[in-house]
Amino acid sequence: MSSKVSEVIDSAAAIAKGLGVTLKEFFSPTVTEDYPDGPPRFQERYRGVHVLTRDENGLEKCVACFLCAAACPARCIYIEAAENTAELRISGGERYASVYNIDYNRCIFCGYCVEACPTDAITHGHGFEIASFDTSTLIYRKERMLAPLPDGAKLAVAVAE
User: Fold this and answer.
1) Can you name the residues that pair with 102 across neighbouring β-strands?
2) How far apart are CA 25 and CA 157, in angstroms?
3) How far apart are CA 142 and CA 130, in angstroms?
4) pLDDT of residue 86
5) Which of 8, 48, 97, 98 has CB atoms 3.0–4.6 Å from 82's, for a disulfide?
6) Per residue, what are the HEC states of the chain?
7) What is the pLDDT of residues 132-152, one digit of tens each?
8) Are 97 and 62 contacting, i.e. CB atoms less than 8 angstroms apart?
9) Per DSSP, what are the bridge partners of residue 146?
10) Rounded CA gap, 70 and 52, in Å?
11) C-alpha angle 33-35-41 in degrees, rounded to nearest 5
12) Strands 95-103 and 122-124
C-alpha cells in the first residue's frame, strides 16, 4: 500500500515540476527576430554557404589538395587542379584550383570539408538564402564563392600586371 502512495506522490511531484517549467516560460519575455525587415543574427558556429578565402596578399588559399572532396560524404565537391606559373600566380602553393564547384543540391552542410582543409581555404559563411526553383543555379562555382580581394591586394595585383 505504501508503494502505491509513493507512486502517487512521485507522479504529483513530476507534474508540479513540469507545470513550474511551463509557467516560468509562459511569463518570460518572448524573443522574436525581425528577419524580413532586419538582418538575421547567427551564432558563430552557423554553417552557411561556403566561402573560399584568400591570404593577406590576395592570393587564393586553396592549393587543390582534394582533401575536402575526399572528406565530403555527399560527394558534392568537384575540383580541377592547375599549376601556378611565374607569370600567373593564383595561390601560394605550386597548384591552385582552376575549377572548384559545390553542388548544393547534394550538400548536407556537415562541415567535414572545412575540417579537412589543411590551409583553411574553405570555410562556412553566413549566407543562407539559396533556395531556388531551378536546380542548376544551386551549383556554386569558384568565382561565386571566392572572398573579395583585400584593399591592399588590389594595388599589388594592379602593380604586378
Assistant:
1) 77, 140
2) 57
3) 16
4) 87
5) 98
6) CHHHHHHHHHHHHHHHHHHHHHHHHHCCCCCCCCCCCCCCCCCCCCCCCEEECECCCCCECCCCCCHHHHHCCCCCEEEEEEECCCCCCCECCCEEEEEEEEECCCCCCCCHHHHHCCCCCEEECCCCCCCCCCHHHHEECHHHHECCCCHHHHHHHHHHC
7) 999 999 999 999 999 998 776
8) yes
9) 52
10) 17
11) 65
12) unpaired
Q: What is the rounded end-to-end Cα distance, in angstroms, of the chain?
A: 92
Cell of 32: 522574436
Question: Cα separation of 52 and 100, whole Å?
Answer: 9
Burial 18-33 (b: 16+ CB within 10 A, else e): eeeeeeeeeeeeeeee
Residue written as cell 518570460?
A: 28
